[in-house]
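Q: Got a minute? One more chain.
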Amino acid sequence: MVKNMKKTIIQIFLISFLICIFISVDLIAGEKDQEFPVNLLFSKADLPRIRENTKLPIFKDFWQSLLESDATKDKNFMRQAFVYVVTDDQKRGEAAKKEMLKNLELERWDMYVEDDKYALGFLWAGRLTAWMSLGYDWLYDLLTSQEREEVLRQITEKGCVPIYRALHGMRHPETVKKWDFTPEFKKKYDVPDMSRWPVILGHNNFRMVNSGGFALGIFTLMGKENRTEKWLEMLLDSFNRIADLYETDGSYDEGVSYCNYATEYLLYLMEVVKRKLNIELFDAVNFVGMMEYDLAMYMPHYLEPHGSVNFGDAGNSLNSDIGFWVARKSRDGLSQYIALNYPGKQDIFSLLYYDPSVKPEPPGKNGYFKKLDLDWIVTRSGYELDDLVLAMRSGPPTNHEHADRNSILLKAYGEILLADHKHPTYDRNNPEWLLRTSPAHNTVLIDGQGHQYHKGEEGTNASDAAAKIVRYGQRNGYDFWASDATQAYALINPDVESVTRTTLVFPDIPCLIVMDKLIKKNEPSIFSARWHIENSDSNGSGSVDKNSFIIKRPNAKFYGVCAGSPGVKNIYSALPLPESKKIFPFIEIKTVQKTKEQFLILVATPLQKTEKEPNIKIENKNNWWTLTVKKNGSELKLRVFDQNTLPEFEIIKNDFE
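A: Always. Here it is, folded:
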């Protein structure tokens, strides 16, 4: 219903847009004598407010870093042009202009072509079209008439025309002849099959980035180029499709860092459409929900003080400009608080969008446990460095994903204690492609195999593997959920009958209980569960002792006890990547014999560096498993009944509440 409502809203906007096109052309052309030539994202009337924001304590370090930066060495001329506009520093403006004009020498602004000859515009073209358009706006008074003319010509031919061609192909994939890399890049990137790229790229951040650049290019050219009416229709059609890339709750399936990248360009589109056509697109996406998604995924640790749960290739949190923009539009205090306290980093547009009149409102404990529409689950004890964060990746396939269904990540006391190796190679021929597969994740293996994943034939696109949350909730003292990944594993091994993982989290202890139930139809197998160690800084280690193991990081450790029916053994090993400069160690809980049905149990606790390991017991009597954790004079005891595909459990005692 919400998706249909979005489409209805956009259709109304389209009609409104078509009515006002002819009026707006003259109005836009008439803005030349006001302040900037185009006034894409702000006008000179906004500069006093921006300058006041630069003086605020929250921007002091960021603004000082910009003032101290060497403009002659900064490839981001848009950033330097912005500083020039705010400070009127002529040397900085000239340096930005020089860097900007270098792009006029490029043969093309992107690395893709259609039918081996027609330029296509995606990420690079979207970025350069945006930067060149803003550069034209902000550096106008420093450009000669010939330079202005050439900038506009190239925004047209190297920016808007290739981007329009790409968006047309996404909209009408049946008309695409062949998308490919340009000759110079074909040697660097091995993607054997790009036949589905018009569909794939039409449903991810590529569409958003090229649409954002396209929007700024269109309005820079308005009144000077007779194709802008056709381009505008394509732009708003693209926005309609972009709106559907966000879930109803505001979450985004490529992860938070890709959400940041894509949304910043989406803001270009929405802001310029609002300024030039007076069409407000804000309600087409649940942006307040997107900020809650960002907060739910927030996972600060020593290696990344503003990190995010890195399912797939993601990692960082939203930059503050997005949160300030959402707060400014919605007057939402939580969005303001997130942008002020938990940003990935500051951005030049943070100074534009920040509105100090929006009162920040800190998050409450009711957001500590979150099930997203993506079927991702995150629970936590708080949002600070030392707080517990535990997340499970269930849900459908997504772009930039890994083979990580039912995988768990854990952070506590400022350290990643159960790791997902961040942003591995895109090169399918590189041995470290292994880092994208199930054996490199905190999930289960059947005869050493994980679930279905591709071999990079189409790039880092989505696989066919899916999982789903089948139960979840909160009870006194703990959170629980169960995820079914049977479909994902059966794609590789049709003899798989059921693969489920049930998770209980007791934040007050803290304690993690993971129960994997694995069933084959006919042939017995060796089942195992892996738990990976954060070692990107070479400071992670692990060891095993009978039925227990310990993972160590510089400031924290993770102690676990394992059991299973039939029996299991613990192994300390590393991924077979001898050519890699890094070591990727893990703990593996493995069955001692082949079986058609296996029940694996892990009871584990994150601990501070000097904290003593608790007393953990796992006993199996009378068809019931009894799990006991004793720590600092308190006791947790629960019973687990292994039946069918999902275990049942009940708390007998919990002194930690």
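A: The longest helix spans residues 2-29.
Q: Perfect, thanks.
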